[in-house]
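Batch manifest, entry 17 of 40.
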Amino acid sequence: MIRRRSFAVALALALLALSSVSINLGRTLRVVDNNGAAVEDVFVIYHHEGYRLNPAHSTTYEASRRSIARSGSGGRVEIPPSVNMHWPFPIESHPILRVDLVYAPAFHNGLATIVDRAIAQPGAFEVAGDLAGVTLADLSGSPDLWEGTLRNLSMMIGQLIGERSSNPPRHRARPETAALTRVLAGQFVQEYGAFLARYRDVTRPRPEMPPGIRSLAEQERRAWNEMVDRDLAHEPRWGDVAQRLFARDAERFVRVETDSK
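Output type: structure tokens
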């Protein structure tokens, strides 16, 4: 009887331990352009995330810090396997891979993300149904989309820097991520400079009224138009917006880039 109880307790503890360990096999991403040609020198920022039991609404938890992988030949980015610890199911689900950003400097494209389904932004990127491929467009001629890349890149670099000094989560980032963070900081400075060189004095177009606004009463439509008029009067050129949003980040990231030099 005692032996059976001991075996049952040991089995229960083993099952509990197994339900608290998650093994992610990694993934190989292939990044191509609209013609199917490999895009070289791609950065992928990623982390592992799961769901936490909550009777009111679904919540998530991060099982790892953000890490960076850089492409090799043929536009392929290898995201390595990982082992993550978490509270046992159903308290916390097994974490899955979340790609926060796919960034190709040559295309000024940092808009793509990959979660648990294929997503697309027409004119910018498309994720394959099997989540193993990303198609990127060159955004050089689209200042609004290029500005989106600067926004995403700035946010991601800020999070990477912040995670280095915050309380460590359950699993640390890959050792090379600190070095690649400095590389990305330098890339941001170059992106910002290239954007200003091309669009500093280019006038911003008037945006189209969103469908949701068009369906509102005349007073709301008039208020939206007045808001747009004030915005364009205050910042008529793309360079005005970029300097307001990114000048401080560029100065900050120059210091990050030269940290180890």
